Structures are given as structure tokens and as C-alpha cells.
Amino acid sequence: MVIAPTNLPLWITFARLVASPIFVLLFWAGLRGSGYGAPVDVLISDLRPEYLIAAWALMFLQEVSDLVDGAIARYHGTVTDLGKLVDPLADTLSHVGAFLCLMWVGLIPFWVLLVVYYREAVVGTLRVIAAKEGYVIQARPSGKIKSLSQAVAANVIVGFLVVSHYLEGLRVLVAPVAQVLSILVALGALISLVDYYLAINRIAGKK
Which among 13, 19, 14, 58 has a CA at the least distance from the CA of 158? Predict the structure, then answer.
């Protein structure tokens, strides 16, 4: 499907899709060979902070653009079915990419990433099936909360890595904070999964 040149919100959304792998590359470039299993203090002390700062800034811009594209689309009346489907995809790639990086350095447990992936796969499949039946499932409040929890978790953990590189006293907080945020992310994903499943069932039952 061709995107109209005047549809700025969709172009912003697609820019977020492109930014996701760039974040992963910047994060990877910020490591000095420290991967899964390396002690947190070693990981932090060996970081190349300039790359992590760039990755952190890019992640922040992605979150800001997520708010901007939706606001522009609603204000100008350019909300499209394509936008409703692609916008959650951009969120998913952004957050899952960040969590993959954080799992690699041992700050996000594998099971949390598995829960997040399972939620996105199931909800994404259900939305595609619903679209083929002629109705589009718009973003629900639980999905917004899920995305917000993931955005906050990813930004805070990456931010802690950057700041603690310079402030050694904060390094002991990185792992505990990451653990708490990981649990909140998993809960948000599970609640959103149940909510979307029930909502799609209700809509399908009315058809």
C-alpha cells in the first residue's frame, strides 16, 4: 500500500520502524565484549558511553514520536487503518529490540521477553484475523498501559546504565531496578493479552 506524501503521521511511524534496528546496533557498539553472564559492575565500567547515550537518545525520540504521530493524525483527521496496524508494530519492534539488548547483558530475564513476545504474537495474529473479517481492532487502554510500562522500563534501565557509568555509587541499583521493572512489564503484557482476547471475542460475537 502506497503512503500518501501528505500523510506525515504514517511517515513518522515508518521512521520508528527504521530506528529500531539502529538502536540495537548502537547498543551493541556500546559494549566491549561484555555479554550475558558478565558481572553488572564489569559491564558498566567497560561501556562505551557515547554509543549508549546515542542509543538512549534514539529510544527517547522513538517514544516522543509515538505520541506525536497519533496526535497529528487525530488533529488532521488522517487516521487510517494502515496506521492503526503499523503503529503497534513499530512499538513492538522498538521495545522488543531494547529488551533483547537488555537480556543479552543479563538485565532482563529471558522469561520476561518470552511473555512480551507471546503477547505481541497472539494479539497481532488476532488483529490480522479480525481485519480479514472486515473490522479493525483499535488500540485499547490496556495496550497503551502495556506500551507505557515497556517504554518506561527500557528507558530507565538504559538510562541507569549510562548514568551509573559515571556515578559508581548507583551501580548496585541497576540490577534490582531492572528486576522490578521486568516484573511490571510482564504483568502489563499479560493483562493486555487477556483484555484484547476478550475484546476481540466480544466484537466477533456481534458479527
Answer: 58
DSSP type of residue 108: S
Model-wide pTM > 0.90: no
Whether 203 and 129 have beta carbons less than 8 Å apart is answered as: no
Could you tell me which of 146, 144, 127 has the C-alpha nearest to residue 82? 127
What's the one-letter identity of residue 106?
G
Q: What is the CATH number of domain 8-206?
A: 1.20.120
Dist CA 66 CA 139 (whole Å): 13
- In whole angstroms, what is the distance from residue 13 CA to residue 24 CA? 18
pLDDT digits (tens, 9 = 90+) for 109-139: 999 999 999 998 888 888 778 777 777 677 7
Is the separation of the CB atoms in 36 and 103 below 8 Å?
A: yes
Q: Are 112 and 99 in contact (CB under 8 A)?
A: yes
Q: Which of 151, 127, 152 is nearest to 138 (CA)?
A: 127
Contact yes or no for 87/15 (Cβ under 8 A)? no
Q: Where are the domains of the chain?
A: 8-206
133 phi and psi angles, rounded to 5 deg: -85, 0
Interatomic CA distance for residues 18 and 35, integer angstroms: 25
Sorted by sequence, the CB contacts under 8 Å of residue 66 that are 6+ apart come out as 16, 87, 90, 91, 147, 151
The grid coordinates of residue 51 equal 554509543
